[in-house]
Amino acid sequence: MLSKTLTVVNPSGLHLRPAGVLSQTAMKFKSDVIIEYGEKRIVAKSVLNVMAAGIKCGTEIKLICDGEDEAAAMKTMTEAIESGLGEM
């Protein structure tokens, strides 16, 4: 299991479009991809769960990848989040 603390940088937070990008990226991997936000544990492969969390710009989240391709998942997910999920 790998984990990393990241900051959401896209200006509008994780609303529908960036949440969709995040979920589609997570679905490419066999590993479980979880976002910890406060007391919440969000399954990143569910766009509805990601959107419902209400994560805003500047929020620190903990990304957790666990499974056979966890290293590749962590690298790709980190790059997607740090690049603003296509919004920057």
UniProtKB/TrEMBL annotation:
<dbReference type="InterPro" id="IPR035895">
    <property type="entry name" value="HPr-like_sf"/>
</dbReference>
<dbReference type="GO" id="GO:0009401">
    <property type="term" value="P:phosphoenolpyruvate-dependent sugar phosphotransferase system"/>
</dbReference>
<protein>
    <submittedName>
        <fullName>Phosphotransferase system, phosphocarrier protein HPr</fullName>
    </submittedName>
</protein>
<keyword id="KW-0598">Phosphotransferase system</keyword>
<dbReference type="Pfam" id="PF00381">
    <property type="entry name" value="PTS-HPr"/>
</dbReference>
<dbReference type="InterPro" id="IPR000032">
    <property type="entry name" value="HPr-like"/>
</dbReference>
<dbReference type="GO" id="GO:0016740">
    <property type="term" value="F:transferase activity"/>
</dbReference>
<dbReference type="GO" id="GO:0005737">
    <property type="term" value="C:cytoplasm"/>
</dbReference>
<keyword id="KW-0963">Cytoplasm</keyword>
<feature type="domain" description="HPr">
    <location>
        <begin position="1"/>
        <end position="88"/>
    </location>
</feature>
<dbReference type="InterPro" id="IPR050399">
    <property type="entry name" value="HPr"/>
</dbReference>
